[in-house]
Design brief:
The complex is a heterodimer of chains A (402) and B (397). Chain A is α/β, with parallel strands linked by helices and 402 residues long. Chain A contains 13 helices and 13 strands. Chain A has helices at residues 31-43, 52-64, 76-87, 105-111, 130-133, 156-166, 217-227, 248-258, 261-278, 313-322, 351-356, 371-386, 388-401, and strands at residues 69-73, 94-98, 115-119, 141-147, 170-173, 181-182, 185-186, 193-197, 210-214, 285-287, 301-305, 328-329, 360-363. Chain A has a seven-stranded mixed beta sheet, sandwiched between helices. In chain A, strands 10-11-13-12 form a four-stranded antiparallel beta sheet. A two-stranded antiparallel sheet of chain A has the order 6-7. The longest helix of chain B is centred in the last third of the chain and has 18 residues, at 260-277. Chain B has 15 helices and ten strands. Chain B has helices at 31-44, 52-65, 76-86, 101-109, 128-138, 155-165, 216-226, 247-258, 260-277, 306-309, 313-322, 345-348, 352-358, 372-387, 389-396; strands at 69-73, 92-96, 113-117, 142-146, 169-172, 192-196, 209-213, 284-286, 300-304, 361-364. A seven-stranded mixed beta sheet of chain B has the order 1-7-6-5-4-2-3, with helices on both faces. A three-stranded antiparallel beta sheet of chain B has the order 8-9-10. Classes of the chains: A alpha/beta (402), B alpha/beta (397). At the A-B interface, helix 1, helix 4 and helix 8 of A face helix 1, helix 3, helix 4 and helix 8 of B.
Chain lengths: 402, 397
């Protein structure tokens, strides 16, 4: 319990926590299922190359997402890059993506051989709508990439309509929306394809891995071929390939983690609501809420710093991090300021991005954070609010000394 | 044992193998050890992001390969992609046409254009002599040489070529982990050497790759390309990537590394058995490196001379596959003839050795599950096919 400003770790006090509290979900998979599943692959001496567990995982995740095809990859990063290569309109050079999204999204586009053209986001959802994307479409546009922001979804109806109007393929990056629904329909079959990560920081922990879901049979077959050096079922190669296979170890992990998904989401919701309750009367910090009437994974606690919060985001995060509360700036810096290779740099005004990139952050959540921890984190925030004048003074003194 | 033509599965007979005989190594450690290793991962609750097992593996492999840096990466192809990007290459890179398609594909993914080179008819490798005229003519920015099927390239000759033309040379060493044919372990030559720990190779991480280099700066770029984790120091990179190697991959690789000598000895035994078993079959040459004890002997490669064997390669391939022998055809067409590289008619006509070898090669099953009995059966099917070649050809028509 902090009584004095000096009790804050940033000013030399004891950190609130002994072990770090992170923003990663890090789900604990069912170990028994992991070993039971993996034993089958070991007994069959099939440990990769589209083994039995990869096939099983693909079936399960296709069913879960209410989509016809699911293709597993070594990572979501490589899977998305392959999907872009296979989906983009040939002969064109640009992919439209929001600047304010996963910090490696532009790199995924660059690996696919295209240039990102950055667009703005909607101020309410922090996702894209046709309003931001359409002005970025030109004769070089090869594909539209619409990522779901944390907590909300992008405008799926609007984006599908926009893609149809322009005859462009639409890839939805649904990493943050795994397990969610849109107007009651599971995420996974929107656009021409959707991508999901199975990294431990997400709600299904495959150690490493990713999937692409689609209802397009020909695309699914092409993706399957591409991940295995381009080889089709008949042994022919028709185009470029790569090695992006998911191995059986990661498939076993994904299955073992998927088996406890519903419990995890319930737990996430409970703890998310606990955060909301703890910070309900906190002037200046607003937790972005998940809609109650749709399925959501409740995996992230996204906080908006409002004008009445007395500290800057940097001050807030610096102080929290020293307490071993590893809160993180939300998608900062924005990609349009960091990526050198981009189409039309500076051409598109990005007012919402520029404002949003300064005022959101994520609070620790997931495996490392218990309900009790949430209460303690909230108390630290309450303490910071109550002692903000002194904290600001000390922070500035310390900065001057340094 | 096949006694009559109708005993062959291709003509409706029973399959020689009830279960599919795998083509690659698929060497697996004891299950109890796997359980123990993976339980540790669950206990630490640390699954990827360059954990302690990945670090331990890198240390062990640095020492074993006698190289300053060993960087674990998702798989061999992605390791090649990252290395090509880390070397800052542009334009065209020379590769052998006789290789796994992944060698050329990695270059394409890195935004480079593969420039195919034919191989030496005896070693089946590219040589400095074959490469040099192409470097001159096409202004290649690098050479990606491949150590194929236990054969190791003339690394000294390539070193000289590299200095003379000021272009880097790096190696696809996917198939030669643990080989030290000239008293030097493969892994430290050129700008970098890249291994694969895919299940088909002697060291098995299910999937996995390793980029080795004595160049500390190149290694720093590779570590930064791989992920934010395990960077050691931050250096500028042209593009970010994901090349992470999970704790499960690392755990399996560590166990597989413990079994390396055992697997190497067993491979050698199988290779010797194939050589003996096929010695009396005309038209079959089993490729065997000199000084077998210094090789990993993981690939059992046969070259079929149709005229003296009596059947074309594709027919023998079909006969074996129908007996439940799972053969791979990754090498059955020169990469220069495969899409997306097959558009240039000029290049297609220039690879006679590659075309000849690719058209006549089969890689026979080896690895842990292939028992003496299995090898015996495979040899007897090949022998039977040879002895009855004329009738088989007639029936297949």
């Amino acid at each position: 319990m902090k009584k004095l400003v000096d009790d804050l770790a940033f000013f030399g006090g004891k950190p609130e926590f002994v072990s770090v509290k992170t923003t990663m979900n890090l789900p604990k998979p069912d170990e028994d299922i992991f070993f039971r599943e993996l034993k089958h692959s070991f007994d069959a001496h099939e440990i990769s190359n589209n083994g039995p567990l990869v096939k099983k995982l693909e079936r399960k995740l296709a069913d879960f997402h209410q989509v016809k095809y699911c293709v597993a990859f070594c990572s979501c990063f490589v899977g998305m890059s392959i999907a872009i290569r296979e989906m983009a309109v040939p002969g064109r050079s640009e992919i439209v993506i929001p600047s304010l999204t996963y910090r490696r999204m532009a790199d995924i586009v660059l690996w696919a051989g295209y240039l990102p053209r950055f667009c703005d986001v909607d101020p309410v959802t922090l996702g894209v709508t046709p309003k931001e994307v359409e002005p970025c479409i030109n004769k070089n546009t090869a594909l539209l990439l619409a990522p779901h922001p944390i907590s909300n979804l992008c405008d799926l109806d609007g984006m599908e309509q926009l893609a149809r109007n322009h005859g462009l393929p639409l890839l939805i990056d649904a990493v943050e929306a795994f397990g969610g629904s849109y107007n009651g329909k599971m995420i996974g079959s929107f656009g021409d394809a959707e991508s999901f990560s199975l990294h431990p920081s997400k709600v299904v922990n495959g150690a490493e891995g990713g999937i692409i879901t689609t209802n397009d049979r020909s695309l699914a077959e092409t993706l399957r071929a591409h991940r295995m050096y381009g080889f089709r079922e008949n042994g022919e190669i028709r185009g470029l390939g790569c090695n992006a296979k998911m191995n059986e170890l990661h498939a076993a992990m994904s299955l073992a983690s998927f088996s406890v998904l519903e419990d995890l989401l319930e737990e996430n919701k409970k703890e998310h609501l606990c955060y909301q309750e703890q910070l309900a009367s906190m002037d200046g910090l607003r937790i972005v809420k998940y809609p109650e009437h749709e399925r959501r994974n409740w995996k992230s606690v996204l906080v908006e710093i409002e004008s009445s919060w007395p500290l800057t985001r940097k001050q807030t995060l610096d102080i929290l991090n020293e307490e071993k509360i590893w809160a993180r700036a939300y998608y900062s810096p924005a990609q349009h300021t960091t990526i050198l290779k981009q189409a039309g740099a500076g051409e598109t005004p990005l007012p919402v991005t520029k404002e949003a990139v300064e005022k959101y952050f994520l609070l620790p959540f997931g495996h490392s954070v218990s309900t009790d921890d949430i209460k303690r984190i909230a108390k630290v925030l309450v303490f910071m609010r109550a002692n903000s004048d002194a904290i600001r003074r000390r922070y500035e003194e310390q900065a001057d000394e340094a | 044992m096949k006694h009559s033509l109708s005993d062959l599965a291709i003509f409706g007979g029973p399959r020689a193998f009830d279960a599919l005989l795998p083509a690659g190594q698929t060497n697996l450690p004891e299950w109890a050890k796997v359980q123990e290793m993976f339980s540790g991962i669950f206990k630490r609750h640390y699954f990827s992001n360059h954990g302690i097992l990945a670090q331990e593996l890198e240390e062990k492999l640095c020492e074993y390969l006698n190289v300053r840096n060993a960087v674990t990466i998702t798989n061999g192809t992605i390791a090649l992609m990252h290395t090509a990007v880390a070397l800052g290459l542009n334009g065209k890179v020379i590769v052998p046409a006789l290789t796994h398609p992944a060698t050329a594909q990695a270059l394409s993914w890195a935004g480079l254009t593969p420039l195919f080179c034919d191989v030496d008819p005896h070693t089946l490798l590219i040589t400095p002599e074959l490469v040099e005229p192409i470097v001159r003519k096409h202004e290649a920015s690098a050479v990606l040489a491949v150590h194929l099927w236990g054969g190791v390239c003339d690394v000294d000759g390539f070193e000289a070529l590299s200095s003379k033309h000021s272009i880097p040379i790096f190696y696809d060493a996917a198939h030669v982990f643990g080989c030290n044919p000239h008293g030097t372990m493969v892994g430290a030559a050129g700008a970098a050497e890249i291994f694969s720990f895919g299940a088909d190779n002697i060291l098995n991480a299910a999937e996995g790759g390793l980029a080795c280099t004595n160049d500390d700066e190149l290694a720093a770029v590779l570590r930064n390309l791989r992920s934010s984790y395990g960077r050691r120091k931050n250096v500028p990179i042209p593009v970010n990537a994901n090349g992470r190697f999970s704790e499960f991959q690392a755990g399996l690789a560590l166990l597989s590394f413990n079994d390396l000598e055992k697997n190497r000895i067993e491979n050698r035994g199988r290779l010797n058995q194939y050589i003996d078993g096929l010695s009396d079959v005309d038209g079959i040459e089993v490729r065997a490196p000199d000084g077998r004890e210094k090789h990993n002997c993981q690939d059992v490669v046969i070259i079929i001379d149709e005229a003296s064997f009596g059947l074309p390669r594709d027919m023998l391939f079909k006969i074996l596959v129908s007996e439940n022998v799972s053969l791979k055809n990754h090498f059955s067409v020169g990469v220069h003839r495969r899409p997306p590289y097959s558009n240039d008619p000029d290049e297609r006509s220039m690879m006679p050795v590659t075309d000849m070898v690719a058209g006549s090669v089969i890689m026979l099953p080896s690895g842990q599950v292939v028992t003496e009995k299995c090898v015996e059966k495979v040899c007897s099917i090949i022998m039977y096919a040879h002895n009855n070649a004329e009738e088989i050809r007639r029936l297949c028509k």
